[in-house]
Fold Acetyl-CoA carboxylase, carboxyltransferase component.
Amino acid sequence: MSKNIIKPTLENPLDPPVNVEFTIPGEIPGRKGPYEEAMKEGHELIERPIRSVDVGQIEKQHFKQRMTVWERIRVLTSENPNILFQNWGKNLDGASLVTGILSINGRDVAFYGHDFTVRAGSIDATNGSKLARLFTMAGEQGIPVIGMNDSAGAFVPAGVGGLDGYAEAFTALRKISGVVPSIMCMFGFNAGGGSYLPRQGSFVIQPEDTFFGLTGPGVVKSVLGEDISPEDLGGPKVHGASGVADLTVQDETAALRAAVHLLSYLPDNNHSMAPVIKTSDPLERKTWEINTLLKKAFNSPTGFNTPFDVSIIIQQICDHGDYFEIQPNRAREAVTAFGRLGGNVVGFVANNSAVASGQIDCDSAVKIARFVRFCNIYNIPLIFMEDTTGFLPGREQEARGIVQAGRSMLDAIVDVRTPRILLILRNAFGGAYASYNNYPTGADLVLALPTTRLAVMGPAGKEFVYKNELRKIRSAVPAMVQEGTQQRIGAGMNGAEAKKEAEAEVADWLKQQEAALNLRYEKELMNPKEGLALGSISSLVMPTDLREVLGRNLNFFLRHYQPSAWQSVQREFH
């Protein structure tokens, strides 16, 4: 007795059958011939990658909380894709990689996506060639790229052809880097070339429960004998902290929507501007919340040393408080973000005193350098917000190369050709000020809040400015301790107790004297007065007027800025 085998299907049994007829409307039916047969075969070939994939393969994707490439396309846009380079082949050889053009919010975007249901999304020479052709076309037409990576890597049975395919794609993507922006989404499990290729892109977005890296945990186990999970080797927490991934999100849908959102802040290419979106948020809107934030912070017991989150200031300045932070989980002492001001896209680079006093270390310096360079290449104006006590000193930072990282940041800032404004919020000390978009490094405008403390050094600078006075004060300490001790002994106090009490009294006196010199140093030197007098600062701005002043000046500079490809010498970059 034979058993009925029930095969899974994704088709609705209640749907009417789809019958595609290759006839002209109104035409009198006649005898069908080779033409109709050719049309039928052509239609089947076009639909083959979608229709012929085994349902079990699609269900495997869904079981892993992953979509097929065709479902991912539908999240990016409701418009039908224009599929290019349909080299499906006899055994669906080329269908493991889908390439084409999408219309996203009215903009043409080149895209590619691995179809894991076909040969695990692997790459052979044919796939690599068509991917290179897509990149080349995107560069020539000046349209951005979105990649949906979900690949097992090179197709092993293809031999060296798979490696050649990757190499061809590597080369083509590198050649359009700096010509058109690219956003790469990481899905599934990617290793080797499947990791190198997307990281050549401008931005990488990685959801949870995904992996990409040089090799997988199995290779690490066999080579190094180290047991490690995919999450700990190349998951979003690892790459989000290192900066390999620019954004980490919850799932695939969030990644695709983040890609569309990020795209809205980017221009099509290096000779155009990012899209301008008219806003109902008036440029004259008072930023009272910034005033409240600074008032509560600086009137607290810790005074002008009180940390605060600079993200609040960025949020208050942007149209409707909307901004898009890049690398939000890495080097939080610096915030890099895209936002809009009066409808125009602007890049924000801000020191964040809420983390490590906003001191610049190796990670934050490289984070700033990468973001500034991107904005410079793609004609995005920049607003720098300074509030840092300087570069982070110490053995660890020197060993990691803080000098080189700082040089990368400085180089990127000096090279900027787009409109750029510096707003000093509070601390601007030493080398950090000297390398952070001031007038000598090329700023178009330098503004400052009345809370600015601009100086060569922070409070420690009193040691140099009032060196003689401090020497006199400190040299008087032994005599004062001795005199106080003698007075107490004369009054009948025990010798040891007398000395201890005298030392405590003199220590309090010394602390008061140094505090008075600190206050004097702040009033005489740690303020915006000297910067204004020397022209290092153009003008002071009240916290409530920040949106209006920054917006009006930005509009002025943009009216006189002509977007173009960066024609200057491409300097070395770390």
